[in-house]
Amino acid sequence: MSSGQIVLFDIPSKTGKPWSLNPWKTRLLLNYKGLDYKTEWVEYPNIKPRLEPHVPPNGPQSMAPYTIPTIMLPSGQYVMDSLEIAKVLEKEYPSPSAHVDSPYYDRLLEQTKAAMAALPSVYVTNVYDRVLGEASRPYFHETRTKYLGMPIEEYLAKHPVEESFQAAEQYLRNVTALLKENGQGPFLMGREVCYADFVWGGFLLFFKVMGEDVWERFLKATGDAKVHLDFLEALEPWTKKVD
């Protein structure tokens, strides 16, 4: 039976708080729209058994058939994938609009995908070493070893962190330019929030949780730390609620 609330399925960190960039996108959107929701925390090995009875699997291009974020609407309908969730929430709860169809989404996604492709040495290793609790670490190590084509430790040895940041720097600076494009700021559309802002917000919060050393190096790679710190400050009304 539905409780009347939306349920957000998220993966806990070792502290039991949000960390992953994709669930953050959905959490920020839920908070922005002021929707009543609760979090159901699901460790990595429990994601498939928890979701499989309720939602079709992802396509073969996905890293896993069942992924988080997923939500359950008050109707009992399950929706998986952050962009699909955003489209459904925008349709079901249109006010305030998150402008999910803003062209900034595709423009930003092009840069974040390229940056993530350059940064596995940073995020895979630090999520494993610093973020995840014991229940998720073996699953994460096994699946990311398959994804990287070698054990995490070996990948890090072959792809030093500093070289990875250098490879990602241009893409991160392109995002900085996007945020500066509208002179009114601090958001991509200026003073008005759009879903793409939550995508970038999730990205920033993801790297921030890895530790001050990672966070400072990340900000340096953007070319203008203040732009992103001001952006996060402007997002604070929707980053504080974590359940």
Automatic annotation (TrEMBL):
Pfam families: GST_C_7, GST_N_2. InterPro entries: Glutathione-S-Trfase_C_sf, Glutathione_S-Trfase_N, GST_UstS-like_C, Thioredoxin-like_sf. PROSITE patterns: GST_NTER. Residues 10-97 form the GST N-terminal domain. This is Glutathione S-transferase. It comes from Canariomyces notabilis.
